[in-house]
């Protein structure tokens, strides 16, 4: 009721506006404030001699956030005399010009005649009570002629976002949008999910504190808060502790061009660098804010993870204890099998007692080698004091070529080889050779890990300081931060590598200790049965598994193209060491040395890096790699066929061609090693077929066509099936990490198929095989 009471806030505001207009003394060049009405379109003209000032008044209630949006339009495209709009509020000033100009790559310009901006809202405190607000909008131009304009000021009804409620809106480069969100009482962390049906135009999602002005244009959105680029999906995790006011703005900016998201430049501006274009780039977006996981979930996940891996430790202890009890019982009963590992003394076995101390492991004479049965050796020479036949003295004058039994060139070229033929070297020398693997991989790990850790710490610091989440290619929908880490769960998932790698080392250490004890007591089963036991490669495999966990965790601190090899280098080494161990089991004398093996791994890693850098669009890289792959396969086949006795140098291909000509063309002879020949032919056919298929797919991609299915397979050695499995795992893992839902990386810009160079590992390893 107006009678007998104080006048309302609206009446006071109207009276104030009319008083200001009366004090101005009429419409002059300075432009008297004209009372404005929300929701009404104002049209007029301005020039150097005439400007317009509009005043919009409204009242805010306590706890109510009132946001105002200003829409302006001008038909003029004259960049020399733009229309200037200045909005004055209680706590700040916002200004822009029409046409509004955006700059792209290489100084390309884009102008927009329609501009819409949201004014920074002011929320009155409960102590102040209702407050009256006035907004002045100044319209001016320095043009000597009249320029028309349109002005529309509205109050936003859906400015505050709600939890678990989707909100749809439209934005463009000249019409950005931002909204307010307040944390509920029982929520400490939320995930902002943004989706769109269209990949382009490229957009940016930003989270900023409640500070005016709000940076909502392409050239300044990166000045404050946390931001990330977006094509079809984005997700940002926000924690309450990062915002003292327990509220923040969610800003949506559309970029004037799609280069930042991997898109191309609009065809209409090619060759028109200095011109401007009024491009219509609008994008429909949907934003939903949902609560993130609570701290209790972090604790449960960590506890469950460690408990799961500790169960493996418990199981190993139980197995070791059961084995110990079993061996003790059989030892007390006086019956042990070779699988038990120790117990029978060498003195109780006649063969062991008659074996010379300097003999090699499993040495048998030629008769046993050809017949496949182990026979006891006859006594060499007559007993002492007996007469010697003269014929024996005559036979001693002839050379019986005893070196045949020790010449590796003779032994390894036999048609049928046995384990004893490939384990004739002294076991102590061979064990020291394989221990070099262990010490070398420790050195490699230290020199590799220290710079990696330093670099990822720098990456994480830069992300936290700048707020640029495009630096790291997370799957932001699944990234859960903890402390300074942006994706703690990705790091926690690598604990298994380290814990199980350490358990593997403990198991190997136990086996090594038991083997040494058996050797000390000269156990017959250890000396004369089974395959030679060397643990250097096992130790190296355990260290490699642990380092894979460390470096994979480092990679997942901030995954991107710069540190892509952190996660894959020790994958190569694990797979390579596994293959070396498989081959070393029955070929201990001819396996590769540690130096040549690690050098081969280095070559593979270099090829992988080149594949990441050049393998996506450069056909020459794949041509050169395919040639190297085919030649390496041929050299590898020759080395395997001749069991390491074919010299590896620049003349290997000439000698191989000569053998092929003499044995296959000039005179067709049956291969001496038929089984090896068949397997090698199959392996080469598979490799060459894969190489040809890869070249065809690369040619299609180079011509602008899509690849038929999946990534480009470059090659794969048939004897290394487990290596291809590791490569496929690495590829899928890389794509899962690279296809970031919060960055502009998507299926259209997925990482290059770097892993094509993986298969050459087999060739590099076995080409380094030497005696």
TrEMBL record:
Keywords assigned by UniProt, alphabetized: Glycoprotein, Membrane, Signal, Transmembrane, Transmembrane helix
Start and end residues of each stretch annotated as Disordered: 335-399
GO CC list: lysosome; plasma membrane
Primary subcellular site in the record, as a coarse category: membrane
Short name of any one Pfam family annotated for the protein: SID-1_RNA_chan
Top-level taxon of origin: Eukaryota
Compositional bias annotation for Acidic residues: 390-399
GO MF terms, alphabetically ordered: double-stranded RNA binding; RNA transmembrane transporter activity
Membrane topology listed for this record: Multi-pass membrane protein
Residue ranges with Low complexity bias: 367-377
Keyword Transmembrane tagged: yes
Cellular localization per UniProt: Membrane
Record's signal peptide: 1-23
Transmembrane segments: 301-325, 437-457, 491-509, 537-558, 595-614, 620-644
Listed Polar residues bias regions: 349-358
Annotated family: Belongs to the SID1 family.
PANTHER family in UniProt: SID1 TRANSMEMBRANE FAMILY MEMBER 1, SID1 TRANSMEMBRANE FAMILY MEMEBER
UniProt name for this protein: SID1 transmembrane family member 1
